[in-house]
Design goal:
By secondary structure, the protein is α/β, with parallel strands linked by helices. 45% of the residues lie in helices and 17% in strands. The chain has one domain (1-8, 79-323): Rossmann fold. The site of S-adenosylmethionine has 21 residues, from helix 5 and helix 8.
Length: 323
Amino acid sequence: MKNAPPLFLLPGVQRIFGGFSLSKCRGDLQWLKGVLAVDLARSTCGCAFRRDPFGMTMTIQNQADNRVNAGEPVNAGETLWDRGRLEAVHTQADKSQRVRQMFDSIAPTYERINTLFSGGRDRAWRKRTVKIAGVQQGDSVLDIACGTGDLLRAFDAGAVRPSRLTGADFSLGMLRHAVNSDAPTASWLQADGLSLPFASESFDITSCAFGVRNFQDLNAGLREMHRVLRPGGRAVILEFTRPANRVVRFVHEFYSARLMPLGARILSRDRTGAYSYLPKSVVSFVDASAMCRRLKAAGFAKATATPLTFGVVTVYRADKVAT
Ligand SMILES: C[S@@+](CC[C@H](N)C(=O)[O-])C[C@H]1O[C@@H](n2cnc3c(N)ncnc32)[C@H](O)[C@@H]1O
């Protein structure tokens, strides 16, 4: 029992090892089939076919094409997080570039891996984040580090649909999946969360799910979230935290530092070190009270933290003073 996975992971574990029936796992089987098909296409003609942002078919996805589209030097299979860098992920001078290349690389399997290894909890966490944001009629939302669009999807499905949804991310690989998926009608743009291309006071809600931990400069990112908010607006942030209970923390960290990286690496065929970066970046990131202090230092009038699933993640809400 000592090394058993936390209870909330069981649905995911069951999906993988337990009820492996066709009906239950059709989605996963189709995904695995897709992974193999793309791999076969790569090995025979060096490319795979995907839909472009405008719904037309184009040939992308060999690493050379990615390099051109992303404007970044991505080397196939390059290790971005070696042992040395993993010891100090938040203080790497080029953290930003490494993070961007890492997400460009894992974008094709990102959502599947998330859902499998969080036992489906990631969707519930985003739903709760939307609830905590307290969307009102006519609100506009800017989702920073939107990735493949999961949080905007949750906003779209919330009790009150925002009038305008905007997603910003600096990884073109992730954005391409957002645009091609069943993500809601939204404006998508490639932008750095530390220097947003928006006038001050443009949005009612700014959000960020599993993004701030990756910022090169956390304080600068929080200041940007505050700057683009209208008076009375609020920021919601969903981020991993370390559970307060020592037993839960031990079990969870064993899972996320040992089991998850191995499984995720095999399924996503990641060579960048993305799934070793994840647990390292969580254990060395600021805790909930430090995050609330930083939100206030960024200009927010008040900040609250709501731990979810034994504190594995926390939702922060920070309000900008209404003038
Ligand atoms: C773990 S993913 C989260 C994606 C999405 N928010 C979700 O809930 O699944 C982190 C995302 O943050 C983006 N990101 C990290 N730093 C960023 C920055 N400075 N500006 C814009 N996007 C950033 C990455 O490209 C990646 O898509």
